[in-house]
Amino acid sequence: MGILKRGCRKSFFKDKYAAGYSLKCSWRLSKAISTLNFGLELMHYKLNCQIVCDFLRIIRILQNLFLFLNLIEKTPSTMITATGIVKTYGALTVLKGVDVEIPSKKVVAIVGPSGAGKTTLLQIVGTLSSPDSGKVFIGGEDVFSLKEKSLARFRNENIGFVFQFHHLLPEFSALENVCIPGFIARKNRDVVERKAKELLDFLGLSHRFEHKPSELSGGEQQRVAVARALINDPFVILADEPSGNLDSKNREELHKLFFTLRDQLGQTFVVVTHDKDLATMADIQLGMSDGRME
User: Is the dihedral angle over the CA atoms 247, 166, 203, 218 positive or is it negative?
Assistant: First the structure.
């Protein structure tokens, strides 16, 4: 299994408390295996010895085993649970007690008229904004019970973001932009750069490593943004009108990419969109109106 593949997958049980406990244990195990894999990758890069190669093969067999066990799991799993979410700005109540559950490894579209509260809900689920009341659980973790630094680390490691505008840093190349979240997570530069190159190659951008954002097309810029969202192997990708600035051809390609990533990497996608084609393609379509789920 290459470095592009995720290690351990999360397993869930029907009982929500057992689910939370199981997931936290699974994450700890996943982090331990990922850390071991990272150390061995680095040793292999530095030493290139047969013993390290053999250990790497064992680790990858374990990763494949965890993936297989997760794939044969038949119990439906919930990645995100939000309960009683209320958010006000001054006298305006934007979210009015929103309850929503997002299953894992699905593409979920949230649709509704402008001003319904879709983006505000996405920001809260992504921990970019906090609710006035209510709770958000991601993989059983009560995210807003975490302290500031722990929440920032959780966000960096487990949530990826794709916005309507790519927000690539203009002075950096495509490769450097993709690497930035990995560097923030203090991962080894060589490993991060190799992972970034694999992601860009996977997204059809192997010929664009050294190009600045201004030298890329709109579709290429958005694919670089997707690669950046994937660099830390997040379990959740949150996208806010990701194809809003794209032409019809690039919009269709981006939509298909989300489903490819769901199938091949097991990501959960939550997409706020006005695009009827994407909403129709989604595994689940949720509607919002006047600050409430329909």
Answer: positive
